[in-house]
# Entry
Amino acid sequence: MFTSTMATRKTIYVKIGGSTITEKGAKQPKPRMDRIRSFCSEVKQVVSSGTQLILAHGGGSYAHPFAARHSLDAGLTLKNRIGVTETRYWLTELSQIFLREFLRASLPVVVFHPSSLVYKSSSGWTPFLTPIKLALENEITPLLMGDVVFAEDTGVAILSADDMPLLLLDVVDEVLFLVDVPGVMDKRGRVLRVVRKKDLVDIGKTSASTIDVTGGMEEKVKKALLLAEKGKKVRIAGYKEKGDLLKALNGLSGTEIILDY
# Structure
């Protein structure tokens, strides 16, 4: 059981990957309902213990095929504008599945679309995060997702849910990335319990046969290292069944990302 007290209350960003909660290689959007239900059940358990969570889900088969089909990662054109609508439609469908499960669990959760909170300027991501902070102050759990956001130079850009913690540095204390493998693997398929910056050259990319315009495991580790450099505790762990969230939060599974000393 993951426990927390108000005196030591902390905020943890938990992102569950699209390959974990959807059939990412499917031709049509298809959720993994067993995993979504068990994850939402565990979230209720953690939040009820007094720990604040900021949740995020990947897009999987509800986003990446549409974003790739319309080449949204390359920017906006007259021909691909409808792709923004199509991608948002399916992302909203996936978020609604989560909200339905949280409603059944009587857990107050609200969806925040990053496209309404973040845009990309010439200097990088520019966030407006007050609504998220206010939700937490009122004990309502925010639910984010990877999104198509507006950009000054290219019209639109893909903002991965893996990027959001870097915009929430003054809000989150820890970051947990849940993926469809047990953690960061070496080339022999063994889970690395700890990864340092110098280890990055030994990490092979995973899920290379599926479409992911936001990058694979190697890119995820790079972002995790950036978070570690900012003083955040970061872990990458697998999620397949109920209990996996609690194990990861307690440091009993997955890979911890730390700096070189």
